Write the structure tokens for this entry.
Amino acid sequence: MIIVLDNIRSLNNVGSFFRTCDAFGVEELVLCGICGTPPDREIHKTALGAEESVSWSFVRETTAAVEKLHNRGYIVLAVEQVAGSVMLGDFTPDPSAKYALVFGNEVDGVSNEVVALCDGAIELPQVGVKRSLNVSVCGGAVIWHFFNLL
């Protein structure tokens, strides 16, 4: 599984994704757009060194990253609350498939342009008034779900 971050602005969130990717054996973390990249003191503060154990790359445009992943045979899913999204508990990944999950900006989510290029969307069911989680918290839950089923 590959994780793609679409314009995550918080270095702490980027660091948290590194740590989560390390914990669950994610193949690669792709940082796009305004995402900070290692080496960075703020990323290191939350990654606790995982930025050195997780394979990562930087791609300026998230759309280009999605296209590259498609060319490599990945099923690319946006993790976003959009029309047609499937609730995470209702989604069963195919163990023979390769997946890439796209997580979006803390305020704007995964851009509409990127969602349009994805093969589908999944979302985390929520009952709260805000219907919003911190992106790295959401990432932990979704990545764990895939880890548990694959």
